[in-house]
Amino acid sequence: MDGFRALAYIDEHETRLVSHKGNVYKSFVQLACAVHLDCQAVLDGEIVFLDAEGRPQFYELLRRCGSGETVFYVFDLLWLDGEDLRERPLIERKQLLRSVVPARPSVLRYADHIDRDGVEFFRLTCERDLEGIVAKLKHGRYGEGWYKIRNPGYSQREGRRELFERQRSVGT
């Protein structure tokens, strides 16, 4: 899912969506308010704008416009009800994550995984013009052995580097 990576800090009173640089996403307060669970947790995921067909649209997310829906796709569980889970195997964290993320449709979406056929999955990703895939060690700790494999023909990557370099140079 092509979007903004975020950690969701969830407790009984609020949810904060925080970038990996530690900045709270202030422009996604409504999304954060809609993300809640019946537990305290830290989730790793991606803020994504989906078009009417359910496809990620990065530029609409960036501009905060378009007719679609902003959602939070979660793919990992780092902490649950006071317990640090980062040393546990990914497959265990995914099972726990599946048990806490509601199955009913909401802005909080569980990012499923596949256990085999990675080459075929990547081929389909490229065919559908998606950003790419992330391969992870099934029994790895959090962050261990993660490999991002980008779709070289991904259409929404064009001009992105220049866009972010231009934003950085304006702010300096």
SSE inventory with pairings:
Blueprint: E1 4-10, E2 15-18, H1 29-34, E3 41-50, H2 58-63, E4 69-80, E5 83-84, H3 90-100, E6 108-110, H4 118-127, E7 132-135, E8 147-150, H5 160-171
Parallel strand pairs: 4-6
Antiparallel strand pairs: 1-2, 1-3, 3-4, 4-5, 7-8
How would you sum up this structure, described in words?
- This protein has five helices and eight strands, in the order ββαβαββαβαββα.
- It has a single domain (4-165), classed as DNA ligase/mRNA capping enzyme (D-amino Acid Aminotransferase, Chain A, domain 1, 2-Layer Sandwich).
- The strands form two sheets. Strands 1, 2, 3, 4, 5 and 6 form a six-stranded mixed β-sheet that branches. A two-stranded antiparallel ribbon has the order 7-8.
- The two termini are 30 Å apart.
- The chain is of the alpha+beta class.
- The chain has helices at residues 29-34, 58-63, 90-100, 118-127, 160-171; strands at 4-10, 15-18, 41-50, 69-80, 83-84, 108-110, 132-135, 147-150.
- Mean pLDDT is 90; it is low at 166-172.
What is the overall number of helices?
5
Order of helices and strands: EEHEHEEHEHEEH
State the major sheet: 6 strands, mixed
Cα-to-Cα separation, first versus last residue? 30 Å
- Percent range of helical residues: 25-40%
Structural class label = alpha+beta
Q: Low-confidence spans: pLDDT under 50, at least 5 residues?
A: 166-172
Architecture per CATH nomenclature, i.e. the level-2 architecture: 2-Layer Sandwich
CATH superfamily: DNA ligase/mRNA capping enzyme
**How many DSSP-defined strands?**
8
Strand content: 25-35%
| C-alpha Rg (nearest Å) | 16 Å
At the first level of CATH, what is the class?
Answer: Alpha Beta
The total number of structural domains is 1
The CATH topology is: D-amino Acid Aminotransferase, Chain A, domain 1
Global outline? globular
Mean pLDDT: 90
